[in-house]
Every structure is written in structure tokens, then in C-alpha cells.
Specification:
- Seven copies of one chain form a homoheptamer.
- By secondary structure, chain A is mainly beta.
- Chain A has strands spanning about 10, 15-20, 40-50, 50-55, 60, 70, 80, 85-90, 95-100.
- Chain A has one domain: 10 Kd Chaperonin, Protein Cpn10, Chain O.
- In chain A, about 0% of the residues lie in helices and about 40% in strands.
- Chain A has a six-stranded antiparallel β-sheet with strand order 7-8-2-3-6-9, with no helix packed on it.
- Chains in contact: A-B, A-F, B-C, C-D, D-E, E-G, F-G.
- Chains A and B meet through strand 6 and strand 9 of A and strand 1 and strand 7 of B.
- Strand 1 (about 10) of chain F pairs antiparallel with strand 9 (about 95-100) of chain G, so a sheet runs across the interface.
Chain lengths: ~100, ~100, ~100, ~100, ~100, ~100, ~100
């Protein structure tokens, strides 16, 4: 089982993202209004691959760093459930933006 | 939530555009006639990515600058609602023209 | 609104064309016969982009000049209504021929 | 109108072909049998573009010359009616063969 | 008409093949059993184009010679009826094998 | 029959993976709850190809090593049943991550 | 007819494979159980093409040798019946693995 493993290291130009669940209740338990923001896929970069060669044989660094918060596209990525947490694996070129 | 963040920085060759809502009423409250212009997607460049390497490993600058007003294609782009404003993230090569 | 702007400058390898409306009445008001020519899309180059880099990083000039009359393909292009005139934005490689 | 123009010059790697109408009656007025040849698309090269750069930035000459008779593919090309004659605009790489 | 011409010379990397009709009767007039071989498309190379440049601008010789017998793919190619014979025009890279 | 062979060596940039069957019962025979992990495709690299040349003629090493445990994509790969074991053959670029 | 020919030599990067029919009866005539192995496509390399140039003009050797036993993909390839034997013609990059 996946949980038997300690560590997941993405391959080539892939990155592993821990998805933030957007709470539909405020800290005080009040139901948050349905906002478009709720669908926004946000997450944190947990692990990155070694990078990969483009079609011309030029090495391409990964565009994000571990620990960065990122804005994810509405589609794409492979969902991975690991030790009861929700992760996704994307190609780094699919990630939209860095959040600060 | 997305609003917890201060800043969104697009990745690679992407740009973030603040879309102008085309008013259907004039300043005096008169309903503007349905004009084709109304569908025109216009916006302002809010943030740009660092640029990216093309398939040959040549670095490609971003084709627009922050602050420029631009004409957007009728399709494409990812909508982002951030602090109650409507934004879109496009690849710079998708943007049609600069408006002056 | 788009009309608030003075000038539209296409980006990269795009060109802006002012489409000629093919009259279906002669100067004297006689209904012109339905001819195939009527569907021919003709226009004048109003503005051109700066050109763009091909996949190999080689800079490609724009294939047409401002002022040239051109024959447009039956499909493609983005329609732009600007100050009550009909324009289209094409990639220069989509334009079929120059008319003299 | 297209007929107001003197000359049509194809752009990039395009060529303009004047299509030969395959007669279905012999000179003497006898109805020619339905032959497969009838569907053969034949024409004469009327005008050629300046040629174009391939993906690697290498300039590619046009593969046919003005005046050559050519065999056209059953599909593709854009039909152009000009001064009551039937023309087609093809990319030179679409043309099948030269006829002598 | 196509038959008015003497010679057909394929363009670029195309080749012209004279298709062998697979007889369904033996020399002695006996109906040959329906064999899979019957669908095999076999032909002889009648004419070859000058060759063409690949995407990198490298010149690619034609892979077959005039006079060679070849095995054709079940699909593709453009049929050409010329002087009551059945020909096909293929790109040389579509041809499966040479028969000896 | 495949079982008559001793060894299967993947070609080019392919790798052969022995898929782990995710048990739906614990060691003590208790039915494990339906968890998302169950669909996770995990396996061990059994054999790797020699690697292959990318479109630019640059040799690309295989991204995984024999013996590594890997996370497989939910789709793709060719299933191979060999000596009563379940294997899959993937292109190395399809494999998501290495597990430790 | 194909059988009139002595030899079939694949072109470019193609290889000709003689497919092994997977017996559904054992030597002693006992009906073998329906096993997944039965669908496994196995064959022997009978003839190989000269190899071909990739998009960059780099010559690519054929990945298999005559006489090698190979594992074929479940799809693709062109079937060729020649002198009552079943062959298939594949591009060498489609072949999954070598069997020893």
C-alpha cells in the first residue's frame, strides 16, 4: 500500500502538490457564502522532480520550489491520496502562478 | 483561501489580466444599446511571468508589459476571482493586441 | 469600451485588417447578381505586429505591409468592431494573397 | 470587388492555380463517357508566392513554376473566382505532380 | 484531360505507383479462392519526385527506385486513372516494403 | 507461449513494471475499507530498455532504475501476463514518481 | 500475386515479423485453458529496413535484429499473408520488448 512508503519523489518535470481544502465554514462554524474563490485550486509544493530535457536536449529547471504556495489549473494533474492527505502530481508547466 | 494571499505571480509565459467589465448602462443610467463592442474582452496587464524557453531552448521574453491595456481573445484563459475582482490568466501568445 | 482607445496594435505575428463590405447594389442602386466574388473576403492591412520567433528561435518578419489589400481565407481570424468599423485580426501566415 | 484588382500574388508558400474544366462533351458535341479522369483536378500555375521558412528557419523554394501544368489533390485549396475564371490557392506542398 | 499529357512527375517526396490488379481467375480461367493475398496492394514504381527537405532542412532522398515492386499500405495514397491504367500517388514514407 | 521465454527486455525508452496487487484484506483477513489508496497503481521496476534518442538526436537515459518502487499513472501502459504474474510495460516518461 | 515474389524487404524503420500462433491445444491435444497469455502477440523478426532519419536528420538504427523473438503491441502493424504464413509489418519503435 502507498502508506507503507515514507517518501514520494516525482519524476522528470513533475511536482507534487498538497492541495488546500477550501473550508466552507468560518472558524466560528458559520457557513461561508458560496464564492467563486471556493473553486480556486490552491496548494503547496511538497516535492519536485529533477527536471527534464526539452525536445532540443536543453535541460529545463523546474519552475517552482518546495514550500511555495501555488495556483493550480481547474483541470489536469493526477490525484494521489497518501497517509490520509490529498495530493496532486502535475507537470510544472501546468501550474498557473505562485502565491505570496 | 485565495484572498489570504497578497500577491499572485504568473509562472513561465503567463500573464495576469484584470478584465474590464463593459457597462451596459451609460453614466447617466441609460441602457446602452447592445453593441458588438460589448462582447469585446478588454483588460489591463496586472502581472507577468518570467518568460519561458521555446522548444529550441531559446528564451522568449513576455510580449506585454504591466499596465498595458490589451484586447483578449473570445476564448481561452483561466478565470481567477481574487479579492472580489475578476482576473484571467492567459499565455502571452494568446493575447491579440495592445490598446492605446 | 474599445472605442475609448485611439489605437489597436496587434501582438507578435498578428495583423489587423479592415474588411471591405462587398456591395450587393451597383452605384446606380441596381441589385448586383449573386456572384461567388461576393463571398470573397477582401480587406486592407491597417496595423501589423512586431513579428515573432519561430520554433527555432529565428525571427520571422510579418509577410504583409500596412496599406496592402489582401485576400482573406474563408475561415479563421477574430472579428473586432471598433469605432463602427469591421476589423479582423489574423495571424499573417493565414492570409492568402496580396491584391494589386 | 475582387475584379477591381489587376493582380493576385499568393503569400509565403502558396500558389495560384487556374483550374481546367474537364469537358463532358467532345469537340463534336458527343457526350463523353463518365470516366474517372473527369474528376481529375488539373490546372496551370498562374502565380507563386515568395516561398517560406520551415520550422528550422531554412528557406524553402516553391516546388512549382509559373506556367507548369499540375495534378491537384482531390481535397484542400481555397477556391477563388476572379474575372469569371475559376482559380484555387494551394500550399505548394499539397500539389501532387507536374504534367508534361 | 489527363490523357492529353505525356508524363506525370510526382512532386517533392511523392512516388507514382502502377497498381497490379490481383486476378481472381487463374490463367486457365479457374476462379481463384478468396485469399487474403487478394487484398494485398502491390505495384511498381513508375516515377519518383525529386525528394524533399525534412523539418530540419536536411535533404531526404526518395526511399524507392523506379522499376521496384513494392507492397502498399491498405490505406492512403491518391488514385490516378491515366490512359486507362490505375495508378496511385503516395508519399515514399508510406510505402511498406520492396518485393523481389 | 510467453512462458516459454526466460527473460523480457523492454525496447528503447520502455520499462517493465511488476504491479503490486493492493490487498483488500488485512493480514488477519479483515476486509480493508475501500480507500482511495486501493486504486493507487504501485509497482517495482523489473527491467529497463537501453534508452532512446529524442527528436534532436540527444540520447536520453531511462529515468528509473531496476528495483525502484514507482507510482504509476491511472491510464496507459500495456499489460503483460508472464509466468502467472501481472506486469505492465510503460514508457519511462509516463511514470509519475519513485517511492521510498 | 504476393506469392510470386521471393523476398519482402521492409522500408525505412519498418520490420517484418512472423507472428507465432498461440496454440489453444497442448501437444497432447488437451484444450489449453483460456489464459491471458493467449492474447500475447509474440513473433520473430524476419527482415528489417535500412533504418531512417529522425526529424533532426540524425540516422536512427533499427532497434531489433533478424532472428530476435519480440513482444508485439496489442494494436498497430499491417498484416501481410505471404506464402500461407502470417506476418506483420511494424515500425521498430512500436515493438515492446525482446524475448529470450
Amino acid at each position: 500500500m502507498l502508506s507503507n512508503f515514507r517518501k514520494i519523489t516525482p519524476l522528470l518535470n513533475r511536482v507534487m502538490i498538497k492541495r488546500f481544502e477550501v473550508p466552507n465554514k468560518s472558524a466560528g462554524g458559520i457557513l461561508l457564502p458560496e464564492t467563486k474563490e471556493k473553486d480556486m485550486q490552491i496548494g503547496e509544493v511538497i516535492a519536485i522532480g529533477p527536471g527534464s530535457y526539452d525536445e532540443q536536449g536543453n535541460f529545463q529547471e523546474i519552475a517552482v520550489k518546495v514550500g511555495q504556495k501555488v495556483l493550480l489549473p481547474p483541470y489536469g494533474g493526477t490525484s494521489v491520496d497518501f497517509k490520509d492527505e490529498k495530493y496532486s502530481i502535475y507537470k510544472d508547466s501546468e501550474i498557473l502562478a505562485v502565491l505570496e
